[in-house]
Amino acid sequence: MEAFFKSLYGIAYFAMSIVLVAVTVLLFVIGIRLFIKKRNRGFALSCILFACFIVFIIVVMLTTPFSATPPGSPEAMAALYRYG
Q1: 58-77 average pLDDT score
Q2: pLDDT of residue 29
Q3: pTM (2 decimals)?
Q4: CA–CA distance, 44 with 29 (Å, rounded to integer)
Q5: How far apart are CA 46 and CA 35, in angstroms?
Q6: How far apart are CA 13 and CA 16, in angstroms?
Q7: Structural domains counted in the chain
Q8: Which domain holds residue 47?
Q9: Are 38 and 69 in contact (CB under 8 A)?
Q10: Is the dihedral of CA 72, 73, 74, 77 positive or negative?
């Protein structure tokens, strides 16, 4: 049963990553198109900057390994004090 839930977690993680990347690319393209058309330049620039920030967050999410310990557990707090 544990292997089943691990595989479900992997599928959900992959699907969530694909959706996040697709929405980010769409937001970036909308910002570029608005910026080129010289309409709503402030909104276009904020779309572009937000998309760049989200790319950073996606990269951090995909490169950070998942931990089985919950964030508030004593083991996680000890690890924070040890490495933080």
Answers
A1: 70
A2: 94
A3: 0.67
A4: 10
A5: 10
A6: 5
A7: 1
A8: 2-83
A9: no
A10: negative
Quickly list DSSP for the chain.
-HHHHHHHHHHHHHHHHHHHHHHHHHHHHHHHHHHHTTSSHHHHHHHHHHHHHHHHHHHHHHHSPP-SS-TTSHHHHHHHHHH-
Give the pLDDT confidence score for residue 1 in this predicted structure. Answer: 75
Q: Which of 51, 52, 47 is nearest to 33 (CA)?
A: 47
> From CA 68, how far away is CA 45, in angstroms rounded?
39
Listed in sequence order, the residues at least 6 apart from 66 whose beta carbon sits closer than 8 Å to its beta carbon are 13
Cα(21)–Cα(76) distance, rounded to whole angstroms?
A: 29
Residue type, 71: P
